[in-house]
Amino acid sequence: MMIREPNANGVKSMDLETIWHQFLTHLQAQEHILDAKVQKRAGIPFLYVESKLSREELEYHIRKWSARAMRGKMLHSETIFFRAYDDLSVYRHRFYVPQEKMFCCGNLCPDCVRFK
Questions:
Q1: Whole-number Å distance between alpha carbons of 70 and 19
Q2: How far apart are CA 78 and CA 83, in angstroms?
Q3: I want to staple 69 with a disulfide (CB 3.0 to 4.6 A). Which of 22, 30, 93, 113 is the partner?
Q4: Closest by alpha carbon to 14, among 31, 25, 1?
């Protein structure tokens, strides 16, 4: 696992490759999922899943194992159905760090971190 030492703020940095590996390992271990892999096309990660599950059941497993892989880290995931052909489903899936301000800039913003 490539979680690095805490930085000056006490926050551990992470390697997204480790998150992807955990996610795909758990997803592939499911009984009705035959294969799962990720390929980047034009810099966008696409998740290819070969399965006999319905679309709803498959998306449940994707959400479940994404959450498990992200546990304890400041990450979010986004999964968008792209297409399906026979038993192969393709999703645009990504893990990302939320776009939130981490400090007060002094401009009296209405969503200032001081108010949280």
A1: 7
A2: 16
A3: 22
A4: 1
